[in-house]
Amino acid sequence: MSEPSVLDRPASNVLPLRLDTDQPVVRNPGVPFDPSWFDNLRVNLSAVERRVATLGTRRSVKKDAQAAWLLKAVTCIDLTTLNGDDTAGRVRRLCAKARQPVRADLLDALGIGSATPLEGKPLHTGAVCVYHRFVATAVDALAGTGIPVAAVSTGFPAGLIPHDFKLKEIAASVADGAHEIDIVVTREHVLTGNWQALYNEVRDFRKACGDAHLKAILATGDIQTLSNIARASMVCMMAGADFIKTSTGKEGVNATLDVSLVMVRAIRDYHERTGWLVGFKPAGGVSTAKTVLNYQILMKEELGRRWLEPDLFRIGASSLLADIERQLEHHSSGRYSAFHRHPLA
Predict the structure, then answer these.
(1) Is residue 62 flagged as an active site residue?
(2) Looking at residue 330, what is its pLDDT?
(3) CB of 92 within 8 A of CB of 344?
(4) Catalytic residue of the set 176, 215, 245, 269
(5) In a domain? residue 333
(6) What is the pLDDT of residues 219-275, one digit of tens each?
(7) Catalytic residue flag (residue 164)
(8) Which of 22, 148, 175, 200 would you call most buried, defined as having the most Cβ atoms within 10 angstroms of its Cβ?
(9) Is residue 13 one of the residues assigned to a domain?
(10) Which residue among 182, 242, 269, 323 is the active-site one?
């Protein structure tokens, strides 16, 4: 009989993992498919709701500490444009914002110049995320910055194109210079419990990515149940996903703290079984500074300090950055500013 998973344990019995913040992340190679790892996963909805309700009440982040947490959040943002009216010009403006995400006068007022607190490195976002069509444009606009380009792929957002086309799309984005590929899984595999098919699909995607990192989008609003989310998370990690991601941002319900708690507990369970570190990315609906602080607290309390770094934590967002800038301006001046003072691009 297999050991109970982290998802079976009360929140009080789950402590953050103790890992050095500078411990390098070795890519998750995946493991052979083994349904015994997730067949008996149980998720207690009431316990999840109680745990999530404590995130904004047990820990208070104010003043200088809040500013530091928000600046750290900036470094974890996948600055995103995924609209039907995207243009090369818009993507280049987005890349300019990724390179200088916070106004220089605000950074000066905060006393940190253009460097991130305590690290001495230029402040920039974690990545820029675009459709395949604009990968080459983004790569060119970000040349020399070290900011990776992430491409949504595999028939994003529905994921209903033929499997061979999905693999070709991944290969094309990698060839154009994408460092990260955000794939969508076939929801039907999850909804029908065809876990072997889901494993095989993600395994193929991982192989097609080559050296590019794979972020597996579960589309949690479509697969609905927390048990489905837990099992799908585990299968994607077993297949070699470098990150698991909540949503495309196009579903009716996108990232929530409930599903995020289940997913980060699955990450912990996978780490305890294998030793591999897998990242987490909430996407869609994380649009305010207050909300992102709750996600950072979730990562800190459930997984530990190591999961607050951009190689293990990303936030898929477009409007979040403007609200963070507004909060930083309030911290430095005591006044809130209008959103038009903090344009996205």
Answers:
(1) no
(2) 87
(3) no
(4) 245
(5) yes
(6) 999 998 999 999 999 999 999 999 999 999 999 999 999 999 999 999 999 999 999
(7) no
(8) 148
(9) no
(10) 182
Q: For residues 103 and 99, give the distance between their C-alpha atoms in angstroms, rounded to a whole number.
A: 11
Tokens 């083994």, located at residue: 34
The candidate with the shortest Cα–Cα distance to 154, out of 209, 105, 104, 115, is 209
Write down the catalytic residue from 72, 97, 166, 281.
281
Q: Which CATH number belongs to the domain containing residue 207 in this structure?
A: 3.20.20.70
Asked if 182 is an active-site residue, the reply is yes
For residue 227, what are the contacts with CB-CB under 8 A and spacing of at least 6? 41, 42, 43
Task: Walk along the chain (345 residues) in steps of 10 and give the mean pLDDT of each run.
Answer: 58 65 87 95 92 83 90 97 96 96 90 63 93 98 97 97 98 98 98 98 98 98 94 98 97 95 97 96 94 96 95 94 92 78 67
Total domain count for the chain?
1
Read off φ and ψ for residue 58, nearest 5 degrees: -85, -20
Q: Which domain holds residue 309?
A: 25-341
CA–CA dist 279, 229 (Å, integer): 16
> Which of 130, 107, 122 is closest to 324 using CA atoms?
107
Instruction: State how far Cα 49 lies from the chain centre.
Output: 21
pLDDT of residue 119: 59
